[in-house]
Specification:
- The structure is a single chain.
- This protein is mainly alpha-helical.
- It has a domain of 88 residues: Arc Repressor Mutant, subunit A, CATH 1.10.10.
- 63% of the residues lie in helices and 5% in strands.
- The chain has a two-stranded antiparallel sheet with strand order 1-2.
- Helix 2 packs across helix 4, helix 2 crosses helix 5 and helix 3 packs across helix 4.
Length: 163
C-alpha cells in the first residue's frame, strides 16, 4: 500500500502548508488520470466517431440542454474558438444543430440531435462498463469526499480566463 492508500484517521482540518502538500498529491494523480482517460476515449472514438472535444460538447448539452458556444466555453473553461471547432465537427456529423436563440440573435443555441443523444448515450454506457471494473472497497463517503476536494480546487481557479 502506498502512503496515499493509507487511511488517515484525523477528521481535523489541515494547516495551510499541510493542505497544500496534500492537494499537490491530488494534482499529481489527476493530471495523469485525465490524460489516460482522454487517450482511452480517443482510442475508442472510432466506435462512435467522437473526438474528446466533441464528446465534451455532447456531454455538456446532454446535461444542460441547448447552450450557446460562449456558454459552453465558459462552462468548460475552454476558449470559444476551440468550442466552436468542436461544435462544427459535431454539426458535420449531424450530432448537434443550431437553433434560433430568443435571447440573442447573433449567438444561436446549439442542441443535440437524436443521433447526438444516441452517440453520447453509447459512450457513457461504455465508460460505465469500464468504470465498474475499478476494484477495491471504495465507499460512497470516500467518493463524496473526493468530489468535495476536487470541487474546492476547481473553485480556487474559477477566475482563470481561458479566452
Amino acid at each position: 500500500m502506498t502512503d496515499i492508500d493509507q487511511p488517515r484517521t484525523s477528521h481535523e482540518s489541515l494547516e495551510p502548508d499541510d493542505l497544500a502538500g496534500r492537494l499537490t498529491e491530488v494534482f499529481a494523480l489527476v493530471g495523469p488520470l485525465y490524460r489516460r482517460v482522454q487517450r482511452k476515449v480517443e482510442l475508442n472514438a472510432p466506435i462512435e466517431g467522437l473526438s474528446v472535444g466533441v464528446r465534451a460538447v455532447l456531454d455538456l448539452l446532454r446535461e444542460n440542454g441547448p447552450m450557446t458556444v460562449p456558454q459552453m466555453g465558459r462552462a468548460q473553461a475552454l476558449s470559444r474558438q476551440f468550442v466552436q471547432r468542436m461544435v462544427n465537427d459535431a454539426a458535420a456529423g449531424e450530432l448537434v444543430e443550431s437553433i434560433p436563440n430568443p435571447a440573442h440573435q447573433r449567438s444561436p443555441l446549439i442542441r443535440l440531435t437524436e443521433a447526438g443523444r444516441a452517440a453520447i448515450a453509447a459512450v457513457t454506457a461504455r465508460e460505465r462498463a469500464l468504470l465498474r471494473q475499478v476494484g477495491g472497497d471504495l465507499t460512497d463517503a470516500e467518493v463524496t469526499a473526493c468530489l468535495r476536494v476536487l470541487r474546492r480546487m476547481l473553485d480556487l481557479f474559477d477566475d482563470v480566463d481561458v479566452n
